């Protein structure tokens, strides 16, 4: 009889090599549709978030700490489809998902369909560290949150005038012959390599505008929206979640690197091409164990930022960004 044992990936000796990248969602993001003021607001918030995570890594903090800190900044900003400012479901409510994964131990935590959690990424981490489970949903997740000392916020906290208008437009489209056409732009995420060689990834989202009550996308699904393994890479995805679930997109990147020896850039490009052929769109950020970063996407834009080798933040939004 053959015995199979899956071993957690050990951390490497402290090397001082750190790397960090974030995304703020992919979709129809075009320069001609963006006012200079709004573009500046996005650039400033992405810069704030990527620097916050990187500074934690600089000070010797863990990749998990860096990922959580950056995502919380994006969740607290009404600019992004996560936390405050998340898109609204068909019932006019924000319905939030998040996940986080530790590349050293392959431990993971996630929450889905929560309505009153200010920072779902922090609750996802609590599920990972304070429970024997990986994924908690809905009311059960919120009861667990209370047991861990999380304050529940009113559902109105998440709703912004812009998202309300967006839902109204989506419902008008639904009434037309186009049928249900959810807005797929959104999701925030981060990937980190700390100085101990540990990778971490996290993702948080409000999902699709005008989605049906109870719909869950890829963001809280380990292997679809989030994956981290010290042996290969850390991945956070964004886009049309159904396609990322069907292709197990985040894990597929890791598998292609492990089994075929592809680079992060090669693996990411191949997975996004697979999704495109099926009819899906979106993107991902990938960070390998050596600190190499790839950000492939097939949509018209993706909010993204990373820290370059000189320690400087680089923020990009549009498809033709260098």
What can you see in these coordinates?
The protein has helices at residues 36-58, 63-75, 120-130, 138-147, 161-175, 241-246, 249-260, 264-278, and strands spanning 19-27, 96-102, 108-114, 135-137, 188-193, 199-205, 226-228, 233-239, 282-288, 293-294, 301-307, 313-318. The strands form 2 sheets. An 8-stranded mixed β-sheet has the order 4-3-2-6-5-1-11-12. Strands 7-8-9-10 form a 4-stranded antiparallel β-sheet. Strand 5 and strand 6 form a beta hairpin. The protein is an alpha+beta fold. The chain has one domain (20-318): (Glycosyl)asparaginase (Glutamine Phosphoribosylpyrophosphate, subunit 1, domain 1, 4-Layer Sandwich). Helix 1 (36-58) runs antiparallel to helix 2 (63-75). The termini are far apart.
Note the main attributes of this structure.
disordered N terminus, globular, Glutamine Phosphoribosylpyrophosphate, subunit 1, domain 1, alpha+beta, four-stranded antiparallel β-sheet, 322 residues, eight-stranded mixed β-sheet
Helix content: 25-40%
Order of helices and strands: EHHEEHEHHEEEEHHHEEEE
Total DSSP helices: 8
Total count of strands? 12
Strand order of the largest sheet: 4-3-2-6-5-1-11-12
Shape: globular
Largest sheet: 8 strands, mixed
Number of domains: 1
Radius of gyration: 18 Å
Distance between the termini: 54 Å
CATH fold name, please? Glutamine Phosphoribosylpyrophosphate, subunit 1, domain 1
Short synopsis of the structure:
The protein has helices spanning about 35-60, 65-75, 120-130, 140-145, 160-175, 240-245, 250-260, 265-280; strands spanning about 20-25, 95-100, 110-115, 135, 190-195, 200-205, 225-230, 235-240, 280-290, 295, 300-305, 315-320.
